[in-house]
Design goal:
The chain is an alpha+beta fold. It is 47% helix and 14% strand. β33 (1047-1051), α34 (1057-1062) and β34 form a beta-alpha-beta unit. The longest helix is centred in the last third of the chain and has 39 residues, at 1090-1128. The radius of gyration is 39 Å and the shape is globular.
């Protein structure tokens, strides 16, 4: 059935169905209809103009909507204290300590002075409150600045406070943003920021187009087009807000930036639909449009930008989760100690027949029962031993994390000097998680690659053009780029008006994103654009992206085609248009690129230069031909000499010259010379001038003669995606220049200089469902309606017209072109290029009118609008004629292979989740060392659940078989133990897994997740291709939830947001895809290579520092609390304390708090250079070696031991003496302080001056405070008297002896353990610490030896003795020798003997038949050829290495 007829039938049947549905609804109960209508109305927003209600605001229906004043603060002056206390009490520790302080006010159970007991918790909560208040005050200042920004609002002059003789006179008045209301008309001028979400009703552009820059919203500097609502598209007349009488109905406020729909209901009840293309979002900047007018639909907190402004997300780190568990253990320990004190007190009281005099009865003279006394003592002990729970630990952790974030942010190695972008730490509470990552999930485009799309190759009509000259230019780009950068280091520009400083500038370097001519979002002042902006500010316009060196053969074909076209009449022009011309016209027309000039890049070109007549007379051609014959040699040679620098550097200057309209006549004449004698022309005029040693002329020689006197106006192309920009620049290199674009017309300059202005009838934009875009244009000469389509090859190839309807010869030709194009596409994909197919279709006038009517009906539809638009697009884009395909290179970022190789050594499994083609992704994986050429790569492509399950089963069986052979058998007296096999699964270094989106759907829907995850455990790397954003998120959640591992997701685009949010740590890359990923991330970097140091260095440091800090605080508090607990055995468990309470408070708050905090910020167990050189050290964080249950309980036991020493050594020293309680307690307090601080000194790995100062100051502060306090406090804490105690103790020699000998005895076991660890090098961290102490040369040599030993161990463990190794392909020449490089001679000899004894072919020959018979089902519908699942693993030796360079390691487990 004809698609147009089928489409007409769909719309014809839709109306009766709707009518029947309406008639059925009339039979429903009135109450039910009212309920449905009410729900439907609640989902809409209805608004009208505010102008009729300026005098009667209370009658305005818009008054209930939110104003434009924003408020991001959390508190007010009145609500700060109660609200902040409420939020702090959500932390269990604060609630606990407040409860203890309140309990101390009960006279029966109090242990200290009630007023003093609240000081610690008050200090801690006060510090937190001050921090929260400061952060909120900063938000308040920013809110005030934004609310005070100005814009033009249509208001009555008198009501605005402006004197006017006419009270009703209205005009656009300068108004603050916070005074803008829903229903107001706002006028915006060029470079102004949009104050609210505005529906576009008028622009100064004659086509009703407004251009926006959304950099303030999502970071993208490329322009987006917005269209005036269709009913208001008449831009000739000036827009009068007072005449606007329509009602606007739209959806309720929501946070979907790309979704908006509604309609305008005019007074005659006519409805005009609109969508997101007519909405100006708050925070965007108007560009290329002088005047824009619209009506406010959402204001203030209801705007989409504010609804998306959630700020940094709070995540609980792994250490924090472990900390909460250990806190409960401490609570249990506290309960045991208090219960011991209560039982001891009750037993002690029960031993007396008569109560002693110091036991005081109550007012009635009665004594408490032993049980009740024990219960009261239990509560008293809780108060006394409360510091067992480290209250200061939480504040210390926050301070340490702030210090860590500060150091990470100021790391110069994580700073992108080119873009002036440092690392951003958006989540402040998960820095330590960076040191425990086990899985990395990465996007490919823009994350592993630069997202700078460079045109590399193309195929037209089945003929491939390799563009070798362009490839050579790209190879030299980095060298030229580095030279330019070095030369520009000393260049700078003065500050601009906005106060911004351009640090460096270069013609080959783009400026920073926020250095464009846009108005600043903060501190904005209303001013119009003055132009003069550098071209490098335009998105996707770097030198490497713009400059394309044409292919010689293709350029000659373009010349021939242009010469033929120029000599034909307009009618014959269209009839004989070559496929090459159509191909480049499609590249030029099928896009949404905005054209501007280099001198004014933000001013759009809408009017082309005067057109040249479309055809030339024969006399003119004859004259040009005669002139060429006389001057071709001389001009060619002279021009080649004058422009030799251009030809050698392969820039695009020759391309620009050839496109000059002033030299188009000569270009035409020179092109025509090829008709006479193309070969002789090339031979005679270019002899000795060919740069590349080819007979084909270079672009400089072809177009060089046109350089004389040429001066072309440079164009800037501002595209929405880098792919579009690359294709337009490529077309321009072949003289198909996009001159101007409007909403109705597109003008293209052809190679012969002719300007063609196509009527742009419809544009079907690209979307992720269709994976293509199309334009419908009318040819200016013939009036033919042509559809140009470009999109993914997997989609376009299915939309091509069947060749069976043509004659036999044509059918054969079409099939040959398709087959050749498909081969070229496969080659491009294997080469790692992004592929696009180009198609064409000619519509008849009748078919177009029918389709256009349906399209307009779909555009104006209210319900199911998106579905109708999708249907109309799909019915148009059928029966296409294949024109060709393009290969675009997305260059790999610098440092990516090294980073991924380092992650592999660090034990981090790297997965790549991408939406690109499988072949492209696989080749990128090989390039970035995600896959190795010796790996056995299993590729699973299937949509059948049974086939997928069978593939997973057989692959698991073989992998497990190989894994079992690698196991170590433990025997005792020759008897094999049952637990000989290792229980942990380690990834095999020779296994890779590749799956596509269809397979992932099958796995998720078929409940095969367990088998899939089990297979991935054995795989070194996993590559998921053709993934949707939802699938990316599902994969991350599956691995994180089922395997219970720490995950990290990194991406740069909006399609990576769900994946980033699903991972434990989300990393956003601020690239060319905008800032959506950055806004949803926890950390933001500018390049993937920065992730290496962020994880291996800062992640390791943060985890090590914070883990030691937590362990140290538990140790410190338990040690100090035990001193009070041991004393209870000597004071009848009375709850008394031998240490003054002020000393106890200051002990934790001041005397022992600063050294661990400083160590948590600055300490480095291993240097950064060593951590980067030995990535395997990162595994200590993955295994939680610093902070785990074992280290926690060891610290607790050590604290018990040291507390016994600190208590009983002074006790035995003062035994049988007359020392008083507080003197005894002061000695114990002193030795405990010294022991705890010296313990911290033993744990410090990197001593700095700050460490020494803080420990020394802490000790001096203790003695100074104690001396002053004991000298001045006579009756501070009655009935006790701490007066002159420290002074008397310091006057005795025994005090100093005890203060020295006690810390030595207490710390001796710790010192011996550390010494033994350093002697025997029990862990890699200790070995690395020894390396740091060596001289530089010796250190480098030891690191090389270490890495060689690790490589030898890795090769020996690669499973070469297992069958899985046999599935690999025999390596190319000398590859076996490279395997032995880096191994010691015994290891090399053992490995050679091991590999020589393996018979690869014998094993695999028997297994392959069974596998092939088991998996012979074909998963692709419509194909019946059986496929061997593991065929191709053994490559035929007769094949050349070039033929098997890609597939040699990829097993054909593909159905």
């Amino acid at each position: 059935m004809c698609p147009i007829k089928f489409l007409r039938d769909i719309f014809w049947f839709r109306r009766p169905c709707c009518q029947n549905a309406a008639s059925d609804s009339e039979n429903e109960e009135p109450e039910e209809r009212r309920t449905r209508r009410k729900k439907k109305e609640e989902a809409k927003r209805v608004l009208i103009s505010n102008l009729p209600f300026e005098d009667t605001w209370k009658e305005n229906p818009n008054r209930h909507y939110a104003g434009n004043r924003i408020k991001t603060t959390r508190y007010t002056l009145l609500s700060f204290i109660p609200k902040n206390l409420y939020e702090q009490f959500h932390r269990f520790a604060n609630l606990y300590f407040v409860g203890i302080a309140v309990l101390n006010f009960v006279p029966v159970v109090n242990a200290f002075e009630p007023g003093i007991s609240v000081i610690p918790v008050c200090v801690i909560m006060a510090i937190t409150a001050i921090k929260d208040a400061w952060e909120d005050f900063r938000r308040f200042k920013l809110d005030k600045e934004i609310n005070s920004m100005g814009c033009l609002v249509y208001r009555r002059l008198f009501s605005c406070g402006v004197f006017s003789h006419n009270r009703n006179k209205k005009a656009y008045i300068e108004t603050c943003w916070e005074e803008v209301r829903v229903g107001d008309f706002v006028q915006l001028q060029c470079n102004e920021t949009v104050p609210a979400d505005i529906l576009l009703l008028h622009t100064s552009d004659q086509n009703g187009i407004c251009h926006l820059e959304t950099s303030n919203l999502d970071g993208e500097t490329n322009l987006k087009q917005r269209q005036v609502v269709k009913g208001f598209s008449n831009q000739n007349a000036e827009f009068e807000p007072e005449l606007f009488q329509s009602t606007i109905v739209c959806e309720k406020p929501n946070n979907h930036l790309n979704r908006f729909k509604g309609y305008v209901e005019q007074p005659d009840l006519t409805r005009i639909g609109f969508n997101n293309e007519s909405l100006l979002l708050r925070g965007c900047t108007v560009r290329n449009t002088e005047v824009t007018i619209g009506i406010v639909v959402y204001a203030g907190p209801e705007t989409k930008a504010m609804l998306n402004n959630r700020g940094p997300r709070y995540k609980r780190s792994k250490i924090e989760q472990r900390l909460n568990i250990d806190i409960f253990f401490c609570v249990g320990l506290l309960f045991i100690m208090c219960l011991t004190g209560a039982l001891g007190h009750g037993i002690w009281n029960g031993l007396f027949l008569e109560y002693p005099l110091f036991v005081i009865p109550d007012i009635n003279g009665s004594y408490l029962a032993p049980a009740l006394a024990g219960f009261y003592m239990f509560l008293t002990m809780i108060i006394l031993l409360q510091i067992l729970i480290p209250i200061s630990l939480y504040v210390s952790i926050e301070l340490v994390k702030l210090g860590q974030v500060f150091l990470i942010h100021n790391d110069i190695d994580l700073y992108n000097e080119e873009l002036d972008l440092p690392i951003q730490c958006r989540a402040l509470n998960i820095t330590e998680d960076l040191g425990q990552i086990q899985y990395i999930f990465s996007d490919k485009t823009g994350t592993l690659t630069e997202n700078k799309m460079v045109f590399r190759r193309c195929t037209i009509d089945g003929r491939e053009f390799s563009h070798q000259e362009n490839a050579k230019r790209l190879e030299t780009y980095k060298e030229l780029d580095s030279d330019t950068e070095d030369g520009a280091k000393h260049l700078s520009l003065p500050p601009n008006k906005g106060g911004e400083i351009l640090r460096r500038t270069s013609t080959a370097k783009p400026l920073r994103r926020w250095q464009s001519a846009r108005a600043r979002f903060q501190g904005h002042t209303r001013q119009r654009s003055l132009g003069g902006t550098s071209q490098s500010q335009v998105a996707f316009s770097s030198t490497i992206e713009k400059d394309v060196t044409p292919d010689n053969r293709l350029l000659m074909k373009v010349r021939n085609a242009s010469c033929q076209n120029e000599s034909l009449t307009p009618f014959m022009f269209a009839k004989t248009t070559s496929s090459i011309t159509d191909f480049f016209l499609a590249l030029t027309l099928c896009n949404t690129v905005v054209v501007s000039t280099a001198t004014n890049p933000r001013q759009r070109v809408t009017i082309p230069s005067p057109m040249k007549p479309s055809g030339l007379s024969l006399e003119k051609i004859h004259q040009l031909f005669q002139r060429l014959k006389l001057a071709s040699l001389s001009q060619s040679l002279s021009s080649a000499q004058s422009n030799s620098d251009l030809g050698e550097s392969l820039t695009t200057e020759t391309t620009r010259v050839c496109a000059d309209s002033e030299t188009k006549d000569y270009f035409s004449s020179q092109s025509c010379s090829t008709l006479a004698d193309d070969y002789s022309f090339r031979r005679d005029s270019i002899t000795g001038k060919d740069t590349f040693g080819d007979s084909d002329p270079t672009p400089a020689e072809i177009c060089g003669a046109a350089n004389q006197g040429a001066s072309q106006a440079e164009f800037c192309y501002e595209a929405e995606s880098p792919d579009e920009a690359a294709l337009v620049h490529a077309a321009r290199a072949y003289q198909f220049t996009l001159v101007s674009r409007t909403a109705e017309q597109v003008t293209v300059r052809l190679p012969e200089g002719t300007l063609l202005t196509f009527d742009l009838l419809f544009t079907l934009g690209f979307d992720s469902n269709r994976k293509r875009m199309s334009v419908v244009v009318r040819h200016p000469h013939t009036g033919e309606i042509i559809v140009y389509t470009k999109g993914a090859d997997s989609v376009i190839m299915d939309l091509l017209e069947e060749p069976s309807r043509a004659n036999l010869a044509m059918e054969k030709k079409i099939r040959k072109v398709r087959d050749q194009t498909q081969k070229h596409l496969d080659f491009y994909a294997r080469d790692g290029l992004r592929t696009l197919c180009i198609g064409k279709k000619v519509l008849s006038e009748d078919d177009f009118q029918i389709w256009a009517n349906f399209r307009r009906e779909a555009e104006t539809a209210i319900d199911n609008r998106d579905e109708l638009l999708m249907q109309t697009a799909q019915h148009l884009e059928t029966k296409l004629t294949l024109l060709g395909a393009t290969g675009i290179e997305d260059r790999l970022q610098d440092g990516v292979p090294d980073a991924i190789a380092a992650f592999r050594e660090a034990g981090i499994q790297t997965w790549v989740l991408t939406g690109d083609k499988q072949e492209t992704a696989v080749n990128i994986a090989y390039s970035c060392k995600l896959l190795d050429q010796r790996d056995t790569v299993f590729t699973i492509n299937t949509e059948s659940k049974e086939t997928c399950e069978s593939l997973l089963d057989i692959t698991l069986e073989e992998v497990k078989k190989a894994q079992s052979i690698q196991g170590i058998a433990w025997t005792v007296f020759g008897i094999k133990l049952p637990f000989s096999m290792p229980t942990t699964v380690t990834a095999d270094s020779a296994i890779g897994l590749v799956v596509d989106g269809r397979t992932l759907n099958t796995i998720f829907q078929g409940q095969l997740e367990h088998k899939f995850l089990e297979l991935t455990k054995y795989s070194r790397s996993v590559l998921c291709c053709r993934c949707t954003p939802l699938q990316k998120s599902m994969v991350v959640k599956l691995v994180r939830g089922q395997l219970k591992v720490m995950t990290l997701a990194i991406g740069d685009g909006a399609n990576d947001v769900s994946m980033i949010q699903a991972a434990d740590v989300g990393i956003g890359i601020s690239g060319q895809e905008g800032m959506q990923a950055v806004m949803a991330s926890d950390f933001a970097i500018s390049q993937f290579k920065h992730l290496k140091k962020l994880l291996l260095v800062h992640g390791h440091w943060c985890y090590s520092r914070l883990g030691k800090l937590v362990i140290y605080f538990f140790y410190k508090n338990v040690t100090y609390v035990n001193l009070l607990f041991w004393y209870q055995f000597f004071c009848a468990f009375s709850g008394a304390a031998m240490i003054d309470y002020w000393q106890m408070i200051f002990f934790n708050l001041f005397f022992t708090s600063v050294p661990p905090i400083l160590s948590g910020v600055l300490d480095k167990d291993v240097s950064a250079g060593t951590l980067l050189s030995l990535p395997g050290l990162y595994k200590s964080g993955q295994n939680s070696e610093v902070y785990k249950p074992l280290t926690f309980w060891v610290a607790i036991l050590e604290s018990f031991y040291q507390s016994l020493i600190c208590f009983f050594v002074p006790y035995l020293a003062y035994l049988d003496s007359d020392i008083d309680i507080f003197s005894f307690g002061t000695t114990i307090n002193t030795v405990a302080l010294l022991t705890i601080l010296f313990h911290q000194a033993l744990e410090i790995q990197t001593w700095t001056l700050s460490h020494g100062i803080t420990i020394t100051v802490s000790i001096l502060l203790y003695f100074i405070f104690s001396t002053i306090y004991n000298a001045t406090c006579v009756i501070c804490n009655p009935p006790t008297n701490p007066y002159w105690i420290m002074e008397s103790e310091m006057s005795q020699a025994s005090f100093y002896f005890i203060s020295i000998i006690t810390p030595v005895i207490a710390l001796l076991p710790r010192y011996l353990i550390l010494a033994l660890q350093g002697t025997f090098e029990v862990s890699p961290i200790v070995k690395a610490q020894h390396l740091d102490k060596l001289p530089k040369e010796q250190q480098d040599w030891e690191i090389k030896k270490w890495k060689l030993r690790e490589q030898g161990r890795g090769v020996c463990n690669d499973g070469l003795e297992g069958p899985i190794a046999n599935m690999g392909v025999s390596p190319p020449d000398n590859a076996a020798e490279r395997m032995f490089q880096g191994l010691c001679p015994p290891e090399q000899e053992a490995l050679r003997n091991q590999t020589s004894n393996n018979d690869y072919t014998k094993w695999w020959g028997g297994e392959e038949d069974a596998a092939a018979g088991f998996l012979s089902e074909d998963a692709s519908p419509g194909q019946s050829t059986p496929a061997k699942p593991f065929s191709g693993l053994l490559t035929n030796g007769a094949k050349s290495s070039s033929q098997r360079s890609h597939r040699r390691s990829v097993s054909a487990v593909t159905l």
